[in-house]
Design goal:
The chain is of the alpha/beta class and about 325 residues long. It has two domains: about 160 residues, no CATH class; about 100 residues, no CATH class. Helices cover about 65% and strands about 5% of the residues. Strands 2-1-3-4 form a four-stranded parallel sheet. The protein starts with a helix and ends with a helix. The mean pLDDT is about 90.
């Protein structure tokens, strides 16, 4: 009983820390760690049975797997098969196989030493907590309302067509940026400048920044309101080079960053690394594309913060010896 009271107190403390951290920096990885800690502890409060405890996280993970599979099937039906679509099938299969082997089928672990078995279960448990925490944080950051006091709006680029036209993803981002600037002018009578960002790929006739700039100019923006960035090759360079353009004009400018909803969380993390504390604005993405796209973003986020996972692995390895 005392253990459950202490664990409940720990959950409350972590949740308070999460609220404060999220309010200050919504896209910080610290928020994901705090949520992971909460998810890690809650099953221990609810039940003392290890199998029942595993089900508490297994059920939402199964729901995520079903969403991934259904959306991937729909994606293939709408847009055809692509190699990256396989990830949306591989992840659910690997997860379900691992969960079944570690928790629900006794034979695979019958000859495995007890400490190793405990370590593998803890690692799966940690992975479940981390995946669910990233999903929850990604959902929350998209719903943070932007402030209508921005001086510049960075539009993150992605590929344009062979004719130099905006593809649906990048067009959605640009339309969202236009809508935000118009909304800000209507609400606060304050104009924001555009920084369309993106270099030229090998199969692109012009840079993404130039293509977005042309679209903006054709939709009412003036030449002196658009400052394209044309050198970047990835999201981090988008932000670094765009910030340099903005700093040359106004080092104290307030910045908004526009991208697709599935891309908001990682873009926010990269923004902090680039020295920007922005308002993040996520435009809607067609439902069947979003889950698999967010899965790729999740993997990138995990790789970006590998030091935390190495530390967690060491801690869980030591813990498994005592648990066994």
């Amino acid at each position: 009983m005392i253990d459950k009271i202490l664990l409940t107190g720990g959950v409350i403390l972590l949740f308070i820390c999460f609220l404060r951290s999220f309010k200050k920096r919504p896209c910080s990885y610290i928020n994901i760690l705090l949520l992971s800690g909460i998810l890690f502890i809650i099953p221990f409060i609810i039940t003392g049975d290890p199998v029942k405890r595993s089900l508490i996280l297994f059920i939402p993970m199964c729901i995520l797997c079903i969403i991934l599979i259904v959306s991937n099937v729909s994606l293939i039906m709408h847009e055809g098969f692509r190699k990256k679509s396989l990830l949306g099938f591989i992840f659910p299969v690997l997860y379900l196989m691992a969960a079944a082997a570690l928790w629900f089928i006794k034979y695979p672990l019958s000859n495995v030493p007890s400490p190793l078995s405990s370590f593998l279960k803890l690692m799966l448990y940690y992975g479940e907590c981390t995946v669910l925490a990233i999903c929850m944080t990604g959902y929350a950051v998209v719903r943070v309302k932007p402030h209508y006091d921005r001086d510049f709006v960075i539009i993150l680029g992605c590929s344009v067509s062979r004719k130099g036209m905006l593809r649906p993803l990048i067009k959605d981002r640009t339309n969202m940026a236009i809508h935000f600037v118009w909304e800000q002018e209507w609400r606060k009578n304050k104009t924001a400048f555009y920084v369309p960002s993106g270099g030229q790929g090998n199969d692109e006739p012009i840079s993404e920044g130039s293509a977005i700039a042309l679209y903006l100019l054709s939709h009412g923006a003036e030449d002196n309101e658009v400052f394209p960035e044309k050198r970047s090759r990835n999201t981090f360079e988008n932000l670094i080079f765009s910030k340099k353009i903005i700093d040359d004009i106004d080092p104290d400018a307030k910045i908004a960053v526009v991208t697709n909803d599935f891309h908001v969380l990682r873009s926010g993390m990269l923004s902090y690394r680039a020295g920007i504390t922005p308002d993040l604005i996520g435009c809607r993405t067609v439902w069947y594309f979003r889950p698999s796209a967010f899965l790729r973003e999740m993997i990138a986020i995990l790789v970006m913060n590998m030091r935390f996972h190495i530390a967690a692995t060491v801690i869980l390895c030591i813990s498994s010896v005592f648990i066994a």
